[in-house]
TrEMBL record:
Its main location: secreted. Its EC number is 1.10.3.2. It catalyses: 4 hydroquinone + O2 = 4 benzosemiquinone + 2 H2O. This is laccase. Residues 31-143, 156-283 form the Plastocyanin-like domain. Pfam families: Cu-oxidase (PF00394), Cu-oxidase_3 (PF07732). Transmembrane segments: none annotated. Residues 1-21 form the signal peptide. It is found in: Secreted, Extracellular space, Apoplast. It is an enzyme of class 1 (oxidoreductase). The keyword Transferase does not apply.
Length: 327
């Protein structure tokens, strides 16, 4: 009898655990849209007319169904970056690896099974350059019976770092593939789709996050840039890194982070400085003076030499205006 009761107890408990996992449904309509930035109009493929795309917000252990409608001109897939998908590989997303591309005017419903992941991941399209604009966050909150392994933050904010190109994104990568040259470097970098206030185009916007004095915020930072590792910092503030790629880590403080493309980092930041405005800043890592990738501080000009005109650059970011020329 005692054994039977124990069994009933275990069954009841496991039913409770199952009940706590939710199922979510999202509809993604993917089409090309025009966006005006840097006083230029660019055409890019986006989800639900939004750059970056919609956020998927779940608890640990939930299941998500995403119905992807391709209203664009060419095939693509969507990859659920970092989701382990136990016993569910055919919904992982890389095109021609686990599935064929979703053809134009068709749809495909993904089943995304979350298991141990906790913190932040992201989703992105998976063909050619489509991930440059078809991307968004996956926020994984603790399960209902769990807490954070640190004091619960007073608020949170997703920060998506992106690379921005002026022009027609598809054409830029098609040209690069046709010639065999690497695609050109980004024209700008964005935080949550906003360029900054210093590119010189009056209609450009800056991302703003409002905070309350002495409150602590969890920033979920995703590097969705195409190829560049990015530095990220907040002026006069330190951050405490608490999670990386959907796993908690041993916590550490830093003035800045360096985050690779595809990586996510969750950091805590306390609004404990004097009341005021503080810049959030991002810029790419570069270990070569001749190949600076931060176009913002980067002017090109030409010098006349006996052999003809050659291309030079002036890097205004360095203290004494370093310059050099291409051979
Ligand atoms: Cu990925």
């Amino acid at each position: 009898m005692g054994l039977v009761r124990w069994f009933v107890g275990v069954l009841f408990l496991s039913t409770l655990l199952l009940c706590s996992a939710d199922v979510h449904h999202y509809e993604f309509f993917v089409r090309e849209s025009k966006f005006k930035k840097m006083c230029n109009t660019s055409t890019l493929l986006v989800v639900n007319n939004s750059y970056p795309g919609p956020e998927i917000r779940v608890h640990r252990g939930d299941t998500v169904f995403v119905n992807v409608h391709n209203r664009g001109k060419y095939g693509f897939t969507i990859h659920w970056h970092g989701v382990k998908q136990p016993r569910n590989p055919w919904f992982d997303g890389p095109e021609f690896i686990t599935q064929c591309p979703i053809r134009p005017r068709t749809n495909f419903t993904y089943k995304i099974i979350l298991s141990e992941e906790i913190g932040t991941l992201w989703w992105h399209a998976h063909s050619d350059w489509t991930r440059s604009s078809v991307h968004g966050a996956i926020v994984i909150l603790p399960a209902e019976n769990e807490t954070y392994p640190f004091p619960t933050p007073d608020g949170e904010q997703t920060i998506i770092l992106e690379s921005w190109y002026n022009g027609y994104y598809k054409q830029i990568i098609d040209q690069a593939l046709a010639t065999g040259d690497p695609p050109r470097l980004p024209d700008a970098y964005a935080i949550n789709g906003h360029l900054r206030d210093t590119y010189g185009c009056p209609s450009d916007t800056i991302f703003r996050m409002e905070v309350d004095y002495e409150k602590t915020y969890l920033l979920r930072i995703i590097n969705a840039a195409m190829n560049e590792q990015q530095f990220f910092t907040i002026t006069n503030h330190t951050v405490t890194v608490v999670a990386q790629d959907a796993s908690y880590v041993r916590r550490f403080k830093s003035d800045y982070i360096l985050i690779s493309p595809g990586q996510t980092m969750d950091v805590l930041v306390s609004a404990n400085r004097n009341v005021g405005l503080y810049y959030m800043a991002t810029r790419p890592f570069s270990d070569s003076a001749a190949l600076a990738v931060d176009l913002h501080f980067y002017w090109r000009f030409s010098l006349q030499k006996q052999s003809g005109w050659i291309d030079c650059f002036l890097d205004t970011a360095s203290r004494n205006g370093r310059y050099g020329c291409y051979a």
